[in-house]
């Protein structure tokens, strides 16, 4: 593993003086996970996971980090420029990324819900300088399933020494697809890539030696794999699925 100073992004910090006056009780500033960034969140040189329930702020924090790093808000690399709807929060403007001594060779913000839009953007690019789909396997992402197109980006477009932000990638992937992504993350981390991933997936967070950060009503805290809420809940369900479903449907 690389020394911490060699991470592309060593840490992220919220600058309270950049928060709009009177906005402390509004989204996203009122989220405990956002407030906790005032204390600076350090990132692993390889893989950092942000986990937590829906509404905990993990995707909000991830998106803001990606934008602060210069990536397109709706997904893609720092070279992408499409925008279909301005829906991201203003949090990125209040973040400072504490960078290491290296600079990434490439970057990408991969979010499951915007792969279709990114695919359309790529197909609309002029071809005078070459096929814009070549770095993505040379095949239209629209001609593949959602999961296939997502993995095509991970396998073909993402490479060594890259800075990558992934937002809930399991939404596009089967169990086998998640394992394939886990393998790709390991391959590229060993080749100097840095990953920050917001996820609910018990499969992905099993990545060894990753830093797992829980976003909840207490803010941000480091946890182990066994303490990840999604892992605990899945184990409880699989231990007695019929009983769990019976309890859930008891009042119907």
Structure, described:
By secondary structure, the protein is of the alpha/beta class. Helix content is 29%, strand content 18%. The protein is built from seven helices and nine strands, in the order E-H-E-E-H-E-E-H-H-E-H-E-E-E-H-H. It has helices at residues 32-35, 58-68, 115-124, 146-157, 175-190, 229-239, 241-248; strands at 9-14, 41-42, 47-51, 95-99, 106-111, 162-167, 194-198, 211-216, 219-222. A six-stranded mixed β-sheet has the order 5-6-7-3-8-9, sandwiched between helices. Strand 6, helix 5 (175-190) and strand 7 (194-198) form a beta-alpha-beta unit. Helix 4 (146-157) runs parallel beside helix 5. The mean pLDDT is 85.
Descriptive terms for the model:
7 helices, alpha/beta, 252 residues, globular, 6-stranded mixed β-sheet
């Amino acid at each position: 593993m690389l020394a911490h100073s060699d991470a592309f992004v060593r840490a992220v910090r919220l600058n309270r003086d950049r928060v709009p006056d009177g906005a402390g009780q509004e989204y996203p500033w009122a989220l405990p996970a956002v407030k906790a960034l005032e204390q600076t969140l350090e990132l692993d040189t390889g893989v950092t996971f942000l986990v937590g329930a829906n509404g905990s702020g993990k995707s909000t924090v991830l998106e803001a980090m990606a934008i602060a790093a210069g990536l397109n808000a709706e997904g893609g690399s720092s070279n992408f420029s499409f925008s279909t709807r301005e829906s991201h929060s203003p949090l990125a403007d209040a973040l400072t990324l504490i960078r290491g001594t290296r600079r990434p060779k490439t970057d990408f913000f991969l979010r499951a819900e915007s792969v279709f839009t990114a695919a359309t953007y790529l197909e609309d690019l002029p071809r005078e300088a070459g096929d814009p789909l070549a770095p993505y396997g040379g095949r239209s992402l629209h001609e593949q399933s959602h999961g296939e197109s997502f993995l095509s980006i991970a396998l073909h477009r993402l490479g060594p020494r890259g800075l990558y932000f992934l937002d809930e990638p399991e939404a596009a992937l089967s169990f086998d697809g998640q394992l394939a992504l886990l393998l790709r993350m390991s391959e590229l981390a060993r080749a100097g890539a840095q990953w920050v991933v917001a996820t609910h997936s018990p499969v992905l967070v099993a990545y060894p030696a990753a830093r797992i950060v829980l976003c909840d009503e207490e803010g941000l805290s480091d946890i182990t794999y066994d303490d990840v809420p999604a892992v605990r809940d899945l184990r409880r369900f699989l231990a007695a699925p019929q009983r769990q479903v019976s309890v859930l449907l008891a009042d119907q």
